[in-house]
Amino acid sequence: MALKTEPFALNIGPAHPSTHGVFRMRATLDGEVIVDVEPVFGYLHRGVEKLAEQRTYTGFIPLTDRLDYLASMSNNMAYCLAVEKLAGIKVPERAQYLRVILSELQRIASHLIAVGGFLNDCGAFMTPILYMLREREKILDLFEMASGQRLTYNFMRIGGVSQDVPEEFMPALGKFMAQMPRFIDEYEQLLKENEILIARSKGVGILPKDLAINSGASGPVLRGSGVKWDIRKADPYAIYDRFQFDIPTGIMGDSYDRYRVRVEEMRQSLRIIKQAMEQIPAGPVRAEVHHLVHPPIGEVYARIEAPKGELGFYIVSDNSIAPYRLHIRAPSLINLTALREMIIGWKIADAIIIFGSIDICMAEVDR
Amino acid sequence: MTIALPGKEIADKLAGKFPGTIIDSNPGWFTVKSESLIPVATFLKEAPEYDFKYLTYVTAVDYFDHFEVVYQLTSLECNHSVVLKTTCPRDNPVLPSVVGLWRTADYQEREIYDLMGIRFEGHPNMRRIVLWEGFPGHPLRKDFNGT
């Protein structure tokens, strides 16, 4: 006799360890299988875009730190690039190199959390993420050396960076660079062919190439689906055209591919930092810019390849000291667009993995 | 390097195909009438020489007497992009939704509705996204009193 069942609704989140912040999925379940899901946002909405209209251009930099707080350096950089493009400010060479070094370190730090968190979701509870946090700690030490902060750095400025790095920074970075490849090898040895990881993530949460493009996915999510698109190569900003590196891509677009792409990107970031360390010149780190920047009337969109995807700032200027309108193209929000298609048909336990493999930061989703 | 296609050039080419739809064009962008947004956008997405399969972002700006909605279209194949704009009056802020063309617009149009108060007709789920139902006003409007 067939058992009579009926679908029921379940709220996953907003306060749930696997939602990586205050995110809620209103799931409709048929037994353990998800038949529909609706994401609910807004728990962390602070109105950053409106706040920008009430601040000076320089005064907005600390707020960019608080978008994706796992990648503050990248946010700083995207915003400063936008204002520099709008106001036609030229950044000194040394500052360009420092920006590249720091934002690539930031990519590694962010990917470590992404990979560690993903493995946590897969059921490898706490052990892998503690390895990742061990390495991230060393990057945070470097950031602390440079900026005095460990999470919200407020380090970059319009026209450069706030100050030169101290003398001991480069030797410490060299030490990190010597150790890090070995640690990535270590994770790979433990995880790459781990049977449980493969069983849980291979073929799970497939995002087809066409849907990835149509839903505006970017970063490792887009590349995991096999699209070779990296803003650093496709539309080089700052001085990225001077470095040799590859764009890792996935094949199937499943959770495992997204995880692989992130691990490979860490290696590529190390390659970029190595070249930048060899090329970095001495000199000033900040252009002469008035602290009340007032760019000419106009509008601009500047974007970077942030750890989570394409982060862009659209700014409309009315020649005053504050932006007339500022819009943030948040990769975390847009990467969630196809979440529904990726999750439907999978069990709750898989949904957690699929969501983890997208790697979002709620502070950036809600802004 | 992503080539930013000049808005004026594309507008001139489109003028023959969609007469009377272009309101304004300049090197940076071009503006179309809201009623012809969907045909123009569909053409830009499907035409092989443009191939704008990727919508980078959608946003809206309040200019006191009207709203302007900005779409940045990108082609990952040809590596070029263009900025398409449309406008709507402040007293009746309604625009057609592009979700049918680009799923990217789904949450972003909801966000514009929530914060700027522009309704997108044809959107499958036109509800507020970050603020709660019943929140008074739309905060990103210039006349919103935040205090």
Give the number of DSSP strands of chain A: 8
Q: How far apart are the first and last residues' alpha carbons of chain A, in Å?
A: 52 Å
CATH architecture of chain B: 2-Layer Sandwich
Number of domains of chain B: 1
Query: CATH superfamily assignment of chain A?
Result: Cytochrome-c3 Hydrogenase, chain B
Structural class determined from secondary elements of chain A: alpha+beta
Enumerate the spans of chain B where pLDDT stays under 50 for 5 or more consecutive residues: none
CATH homologous superfamily of chain B, by name?
NADH:ubiquinone oxidoreductase Nqo5 subunit
Structure description:
The complex is a heterodimer of chains A (367) and B (147). Chain A is α+β, with helices and mostly antiparallel strands and 367 residues long. Chain A has one domain (8-366): Cytochrome-c3 Hydrogenase, chain B (Orthogonal Bundle), CATH 1.10.645.10. Chain A is built from 15 helices and eight strands. In chain A, strands 1-2-3 form a three-stranded antiparallel beta sheet. A three-stranded antiparallel beta sheet of chain A has the order 6-7-8. A two-stranded antiparallel sheet of chain A has the order 4-5. In chain A, helix 5 (127-147) runs antiparallel to helix 6 (169-191), helix 6 (169-191) runs antiparallel to helix 11 (255-279) and helix 11 runs parallel beside helix 14. Chain A is globular and about 80 Å long. By secondary structure, chain B is of the alpha/beta class. Chain B has one domain (3-121): 2-Layer Sandwich (Beta Polymerase, domain 2), CATH 3.30.460.80. Helix content of chain B is 22%, strand content 30%. Chain B is built from three helices and eight strands. Chain B has helices at 7-17, 37-46, 105-116, and strands spanning 3-4, 22-25, 30-32, 54-62, 66-75, 80-89, 94-96, 119-121. In chain B, strands 1, 2, 3, 4, 5 and 6 form a six-stranded mixed beta sheet that branches. A two-stranded parallel ribbon of chain B has the order 7-8. In chain B, strand 5 (66-75) and strand 6 (80-89) form a beta hairpin. The longest helix of chain B is centred in the last third of the chain and has 12 residues, at 105-116. The A-B interface holds A 41-42, 45, 47, 49-50, 211, 213-216, 227, 229, 234-236, 299, 301, 303, 310, 312, 314, 316, 324-325, 327, 329, 333-334, 336-338, 366-367 and B 1-2, 28, 53-57, 59, 61-62, 70, 72, 76, 79, 83, 102-104, 106-108, 111, 115, 129-132, 139-140, 144, 146.
